[in-house]
Amino acid sequence: MRIGFEEKIVDAVARIAAGLLEPEDYSVTLLADHVVDSIRIVGTRLRPRSSTIYCALCGRGPFTRKGYYLHLVRVHYSEILHLVREEAERAGRASKL
Length: 97
Ligand SMILES: [Zn+2]
Fold this sequence. Notes:
single chain, 4 helices, about 0% strand
């Protein structure tokens, strides 16, 4: 993943997690398919379990959707990148089998 895509990746994950974007509606032609899949997977994983929104990573909240999005981008930026990298590496390895 090249520098510069990082912000777009974290933004997309946070939008999906906060319910501002549906995973299936996310697409971008500049990233490899397994990276796009990883963004969808991590975003879905970080979605709140109930209608009251608490952060899936640190438990803070409750948030509005917009508030949760901003919290994820501001507080969990590097954590989200790490999760996407891990997921993409796993997918990359699996595709070579
Ligand atoms: Zn948090």
